[in-house]
Each structure stands twice: as structure tokens, then as C-alpha cells.
Amino acid sequence: MTNSIYISTAEPNSGKALVALGILENSLRKSSKVGFFKPVIGDYNSGKEDEHISLVIDHFGLDLNYDEAYGLTLKKANELISQGKKDEMLEIVISKYKRLEERFDFILIESSDYKNSITLEHSLNIEFAKNLASPVLILTNAHNKSIDDCIDALRVAIDDFASNDCDVIGSIVNRVNTDIITDLDTELAKQFKGNKMLLTTIPADDRMSSPTVRDIVEHTNAKVLYGEKNLDVLVDNITIAAMQMQNFLPKIKENSLVITPGDRGDVVLGTISAHKAQSYPNISGMLLTTGLEPDDSIKHLIEGMQDMFPILSVPENTYLTANFANEVHASMRANDLSRISYAKELFDKHVDSKILSELLAQVKVKGMTPKMFQYTLTERARQKKARIVLPEGNDHRVLEASAILASQDIVDIILLGNKEEIIDVARKNAITIDFDKIEIINPVEYVKFSEYVNTLYELRKHKGMNLDMATDAMSDVSYFGTMMVQMGDANGMVSGAVHTTAATIRPALQVIKTKPGTSVVSSVFFMSLPDRVLVYGDCAVNPNPNSEQLAEIAISSAETAIAFGIEPKIAMLSYSSGSSGSGEQVEKVRKATEIAKEKRPDLKIEGPIQYDAAVDPTVGAQKMPGSEVAGQANVLVFPDLNTGNNTYKAVQRETGAIAIGPVLQGLNKPVNDLSRGCLVEDILNTVIITAIQGNQA
């Protein structure tokens, strides 16, 4: 997985640009393959781009175009959420991010800008950080805050991310008033003592926080009358001139933007004079309101002056204009080399990049989120399209799933059955399906039917099967589909929407047979919980496995987990943990654990162990301290079918988890079973799983 950092702010104006520039500068010293990504950007008018994306791409010359650097707009995200399509929103972000992950060694991910609903955007950033499996660096804004306020804001942000299973590797408190910075550093170290994360502060600095006159122009949509070449000067103060000159002049502060009505020629002339005089502060610019401009004589005077500060004009009144101007915050552009260089200096001075790199290296990838898991599966299947045979071509759910798989070009589908009947089922159920993309085979009419019959006869004649019996069997879609897989005419088969589990598995055992060294065909479910994916086995095939069989199920389940990108931590479940219990069932699990460990010492296996101790870190630490598995298990092996089947269904119903499976394991080639109550989504997921297995076989 690509190394990454997710910069998330607890509030607006926390200085993301400064931190982003510093991190990217340090990253580019180690690798040229550095990327940048924002899951959500603001809704900009036509032709305007996100400032940070443009800044980092242009300044660093990243091998990245603008459209690749973001997921979607906040408006689009809101639309999808309001339509109940949050999953679709996540899929868009994950898909675009994963494309970058294939190209770059490091990706800096930056949160949204908090220009709309802070609550919504904060929750979205947590969701994105979790699904992109990126460690989080939290920024907070300490401007005009007390030490307690800073600590409270930081604690809330850290707790929010940590409680959602995100790794928080550090926090930067930015724009800290210099009179509290030492005490704040001390308090941070005290309050977060024992937390392995970077904690640092960056002092407030006008050079970074003050907008430029150009920022004022863009925010107020002002017309530039004079001084266009000086638009990049900083504005540290805003001064409203609504009084006589003798009262106004003493109120001018350094680097002020003076706001006054356009017909106040006396203020215009007085401000120009003050700017030229060494006894008064520097003037950054003037903003003339009400749409009025100085009369011709004053314009003539201004035009004769060299190196004039910017004079701007807006149609709004002075009160509204002052409010607009006060809302303007500093932005940074690629051509603002002086401020960019200064930002990098500030970062290097106050942020220990070595510690940050060390913390990143220590981050361990946790279990995949369900959305990332499903995305990864789909992309793996799409990269190497498999041919999957579906024997139950007359079932409307199978046809709906086939339509989706064909339209998204994920696998090549083969449906078994009568073509006219299948088309009629699609028509009656209003299923839009492109039959040009799907192969339909009627088994008895297939060109290889006789070859399949003879093959089955040769395989089963020692069991008393004759040619007539083989012909009858091959007319059955389950046997025919299984033979297609065995003969290499399909990469895998998915059945069970109509047929029983026995009808699906029996032909596979007779024709495809088990892998060498495997005596037990078993199954797992991928349980997509809200925050992680677990592997449950065996919940569908073996009623009451003995210790040897249970050990084999555990090893097969671990291998299945590895094949699908999950690093297995295996819990051999029982009604007691460790050596605390006794009884026939506990001893069976204890012996199975010993056998599995002996056969596969490379795997992390714990047992017997109770479910709560297996998945809950607190309970696991209490019941089995020091265990590598307790509290962290992601492969859960049940002692019997009764326990496993009931548990997976209970978890599915009570938590809303998506149960993908059963996925059969132990066969030479993939055949997978569906529940007769399956949904279209179940069929989609099982076909994708089977396609991946088929490509690995």
C-alpha cells in the first residue's frame, strides 16, 4: 500500500497550505513519485480551480493533472448523500485515489476546506481517512484562543478520528499567539503524555495569515484602477475612512487597506500623502466603495505617480465592503515564491520531519474497510476478466446481476438455459440487459456436450456410472456448469439461487475434486462490518468437524484471507478462552489449534478463545494478555456448523453487515454456492469472488 498522510483540520483557516508545502517538500527529497489528492473540493464557478491543488501541482511540477487530484465536489457529495447514495460517493473517492496509488510512492491527502457545514465535512473527512486507510495529521487553529480552548479542540478531533478506527499520528497547532506558545507546548506534552504521536506548535505569523491585495480583489470582485503590479503586497490591517482627515490619519496602521467611498477625494489624496511620508505607516492599498471614482483632476495626479499602491473599486457600500474584506483569508499561489519559501522554512523550523517519518513507518495497516475491500475485489476481477458460468439463467436475480456485471465489464458471463425463455424472463421483469455481451448455452445443444458426457463417464465409471447415466447427469445444469469449469471452458461457477447447496457441491466433489493435500471442502463468509472485514468459517458445509478437519478449515480460511488481501489473525472459537475451560468441545478446539500451529507455524493462531476476547481489544487483553491474536482476530473459525451459521446470520441481521459467500475452499477449481434467499448484491459479490479465485487457480 502506498505511504500516505491525511491532513485534516478541526476548523477553517488552520494553515493546511503551510503544512502541505512542508510535507511535500520533504517527501520530494526522498522520491520523485509524490502525489496529491483531495477527496472533496468546494463548488467553484466555471473556470476557477481549487487553490491548493493548483498550488502544489504548479509549484512542485507534480506528474498529475487537476482532474486526477480530487474525488468529487462538495455539491455532488451532498447530492449523493441526500439521495441515500453515500456508498456511491465513497466508491468514487476510493476509485480515483486507487488510481493514484498505482503511480506514486507517497500521496498527501488533504481534507476539505470547511466552507459549508463543519459537522458534515468533519464526518466526511473521518469517513475518507478510514476508507483510504491513511494515517491522520490533525491541524488546529489557535488564533485568539486560550490554552484550554486549544487543548479541548484538539482532544475532540483526536477522539473523533480514533473512535472511528483511524490512526492519528500527530497534531500541529497553528497560528499560536507568541505569548502562550511555550505554555501550550508544555500543556500539550502533559495532556497527551504516553500518546505516540507528533505534537508541535507553529506561532502566528502575519506573513502567512495576512491576505494580499490580490486576495481582496478576487473575494470582492473589485475593479483594479491603479497599481496592478503591486497586487501581491500583504494586507495586515483594514482601516475604514469615514471621518475627516485630521481624525483619520492617526488611525492608519502598518500595511493597511483603506476603505472609503469613491467620492472622498480628500481621503484619497490624504492617504497617498501619508504613504509617501516616512512619518506614517505603509499603505497596502485603497478600496473605493459605492462605484464612484475620483474626479479627473485627482486621477491625473495619480497617473503621474510612480510605483503607486493598488487602488480598487467596488459598487457596494462601505459597510458591506468592509464585511467582505474582513472575511478574506490568505491564499497562496504558485508564483508567490517568497511566501512559499517562507512557509517551508516555518515548517522545517517547527515540525520535526524525522519524527513524522518514523511515526509513518510504524503505522500498521489495519483490516480493510468494507468499501475498500469491495472496490479492490471489483478492480482485481476487472483487470483479468474471467468467464463465469451461472447455471440458473432463468432466475430474475441472476439476470439482474448479469446485466450489471456485463455493463460494468467486470467478467464474461455464461448463462445456462433456453435462450428464448431467458429473454422472456428479462422482459417480464423489466431487466435491461445487453444479450450481445452475454453467452447463453443450452447444455444439450452445446457442441461439446458429448465430450462432457464421455469425460464424466470416465471419471465416475468406477462408481458404477454408465453412459446413459452420464448423459442424464450432464443434462442437469449444475453438472454441466461444473464440467465447463473442469474442462477450462469457464473459470468458475456460481449456483444456489434456485438449487440446494448439495446440488451445487456434489458435482464439484465428483468432477473437480479437492486440492492435493486437502481432505475437507469448507467455506467462509466475508463479513463486511461497518468498520472492517472479517472472515467466518465454516458456516455452510461441515456440520461437526473433528479436530483434524477443524485445523484444516482454519488453514484454508487463512489462505483464502491472504488471497483476498487480508493478513490473517486466526481465532479458534470456543465457549472458553485459553486454559480456563474444559469439556469435549473445548478439547476439540484446543487440539485443532495445536494441529494447525504445527502444520502452519507461520500463521498467527489462538485458541480456544471466546468471540468477545477474539475481537474486542479490551476483553482480549484481560482474558489472554500478550496474545498476538486476542482482540485483533479477523479470521474466526467456528467449532461447528450450528454455531457458525447462526452467528453469521445474527451478525448480518443485527448489524446490517454484508455477508459475502459462502465461498468454497479446498476445491481444485472454484465453484461457489448461493443462498436461495440471496439478493442481487449477493450474486454480484460471489461472482466477483469466484472470478478472482478462477484467475488464481
UniProtKB/TrEMBL annotation:
Gene Ontology BP, a term: acetyl-CoA biosynthetic process
Entry keyword set: Acyltransferase, Cytoplasm, Transferase
Phosphate acetyl/butaryl transferase domain boundaries: 372-691
Location of the DRTGG domain: 215-327
Keyword Transferase (UniProt): yes
EC annotation from Swiss-Prot or TrEMBL: 2.3.1.8
Domain of life, source organism: Bacteria
GO CC terms: cytoplasm
Transmembrane intervals: none
Catalytic reactions of this protein: acetyl-CoA + phosphate = acetyl phosphate + CoA
A molecular function GO annotation: phosphate acetyltransferase activity
Free-text domain note: The N-terminal region seems to be important for proper quaternary structure. The C-terminal region contains the substrate-binding site.
NCBIfam families: PRK05632.1, PRK09653.1, pta
The family this protein is said to belong to: In the C-terminal section; belongs to the phosphate acetyltransferase and butyryltransferase family. In the N-terminal section; belongs to the CobB/CobQ family.
Record's function text: Involved in acetate metabolism.
Quaternary assembly: Homohexamer.
Protein name: Phosphate acetyltransferase
Organism this protein belongs to: Flammeovirga pacifica
